[in-house]
Amino acid sequence: MKHLLSILLFLLTLPVFAQEPAKGAESAGSFNPGEVILHHVADSHEWHWFSTDNGNFVSYFPIIAYQPGKGMLVFSSEKIAEGKSYENLKLEDEHLTTLDGSPVYDFSITKNVAALIISSLVLVIVFTSVARGYRRRVGKAPTGMQSFLEPFVIFIRDEVAKKSIGPKYERYMPYLLTLFFFIWFNNLLGLTPGAANLTGNVAVTAMLAILTLIITLFSSNKNYWGHIFAPPGVPWALYIIMIPVELVGIIVKPFSLAVRLFANITAGHIIILSFISLIFIFRSAGAGFLSVPFGLFISLLELLVSILQAYIFTLLTAMYIGSAVEEHHHEDDFGTAEQSHGGSNLGNITRSDVAAH
Amino acid sequence: MSLITPEFGLLFWQTLIFLILFLLLAKFAWKPILGSLKEREDSIESALRMADQAKLEMQQLRAGNEKLLADARLERDRMMQEATAMANQHRETEKARATSEANHIVQQAREAIQTEKNAALAEVKNTAAQLSLDIAERILRRELADPAAQTQLVDSYLKEVKLN
């Protein structure tokens, strides 16, 4: 490994030093990797496929702007592309604003919204065809796509839902499955060159986390709130500390969900883009000998991360729901000692979760 | 920074599209998929249970057969024993009967012999008496003149008589 690395470095350094004086002077400030990377990671109002010396190949999406008092306005984003303004509207760093500063709500079909629609269609097509497979071959072994996806469905059901939620798992299965496959498919689609970074967008992950929070709160029982307002096994005096901590925990849990997914996916994209940018920073094809293998390695890692993050998000969602629907059973079965033990365990989990984020 | 500020529009579309996606998948994908999986698992489980039951029944059947066989063997042994005992008994009674019959016959024979013997003795006695009488008669007829002749006569007569 060391040997390989030194060869790579050797290959890298030679052409860099050879070409640096020749090209370094002519365009020092033309490539800003930070800007390029953030542009690729962030949402945009057009789908920028690639650029050549002859121009950009871009698909423009419709802008849907709602201005209080003026109503809805729909037009192509081409009209406000590259700093142009149209009907009092312009784009500032992909953020729709008005020229005179009046409020505007941006409902545009952005790159992420387009990717969202495409991925949702893919999900619907894939899983309805899988479902058709079950209906067509009743009682027979699964084939093709069905046999590939079935283990994941069974895994989510048996290892995630049944173990984390308990006997009431069936009600939450559709949400957990949708969540898992939505995140996984979008993580994978996000790795496709040129595609949108949907699950690395904080609005998307925040919405998923809020949905988890809503479901958790709506399925919570007396026992759940009992653990928050009267943590078992905790002396009365500590309630002053425990209750706010537990209340904050309610919000922190989904917040950590949103941030974890967003940060993991965005970080992965940034690392890959950074390695690719090395080529442009060094202005040398030789840098490719280093950045391509490293980028490839990170890309493969991201394939793993994409399913891992989907799994973690789904598992934690299932655990939060599980804690909300958990019945007050320890006391009845094992006595109060077991109950206080279980309670402190739950406390530990919550605290460590809070501490981790 | 735009990266960590949720865009209102995307939040709106994400909520709308994700909920539609969730409803569509729940109705057209998860429901049939989970239903089929459950159905398949149930059928496998019931098949396994049935196989177990069949095995148990088979075992019971085999045990029943063995019991039947053992019973049959026992019955046969009992019957054999019974038959042997009966045969023995039969033989014993037959033997006893034969013995008693034989004894009876011997007894009868003995009695017959005794009777015959008695009859023979009586006849001998009679004959002897008759002979004695004859001899005496003849002696008397010859007028018993000569005592030597008389003795000779007696002897000749005695020679004539063959005591058998």
UniProtKB/TrEMBL annotation, chain A:
Annotated GO MF terms: proton-transporting ATP synthase activity, rotational mechanism
Gene3D superfamilies from the UniProt entry: ATP synthase, F0 complex, subunit A
Domain of life, source organism: Bacteria
Annotated CDD domains: ATP-synt_Fo_a_6 (cd00310)
GO cellular component entries: plasma membrane; proton-transporting ATP synthase complex
Biased composition range(s): Polar residues: 337-351
Record region (Disordered): 332-357
Compartments where located: Cell membrane; Membrane
InterPro entries: ATP_synth_F0_asu, ATP_synth_F0_asu_AS, ATP_synth_F0_asu_bact/mt, F0_ATP_A_sf
Residues passing through the membrane, by range: 113-131, 172-189, 195-215, 236-255, 261-282, 294-321
Record-given protein name: ATP synthase subunit a
Organism encoding this protein: Hymenobacter coccineus
Automatic annotation (TrEMBL), chain B:
GO MF, any single term: proton-transporting ATP synthase activity, rotational mechanism
Transmembrane domains' residue ranges: 12-30
Pfam families found in the cross-reference section: ATP-synt_B
UniProt KW Membrane keyword: yes
Membrane-related topology note: Single-pass membrane protein
Cellular-component GO terms for this entry: endomembrane system; plasma membrane; proton-transporting ATP synthase complex
Subcellular location: Cell membrane; Endomembrane system
Keywords, comma-separated and alphabetical: ATP synthesis, Cell membrane, CF(0), Coiled coil, Hydrogen ion transport, Ion transport, Membrane, Transmembrane, Transmembrane helix, Transport
Coiled coil, from the record: 37-89
Cited function: Component of the F(0) channel, it forms part of the peripheral stalk, linking F(1) to F(0). The b'-subunit is a diverged and duplicated form of b found in plants and photosynthetic bacteria.
Family stated for the protein in its record: Belongs to the ATPase B chain family.
Quaternary assembly: F-type ATPases have 2 components, F(1) - the catalytic core - and F(0) - the membrane proton channel. F(1) has five subunits: alpha(3), beta(3), gamma(1), delta(1), epsilon(1). F(0) has four main subunits: a(1), b(2) and c(10-14). The alpha and beta chains form an alternating ring which encloses part of the gamma chain. F(1) is attached to F(0) by a central stalk formed by the gamma and epsilon chains, while a peripheral stalk is formed by the delta and b chains.
HAMAP family the UniProt entry points to: ATP_synth_b_bprime (MF_01398)
Stated name of the protein: ATP synthase subunit b
Organism, scientific name: Hymenobacter coccineus
Gene coding for it: atpF
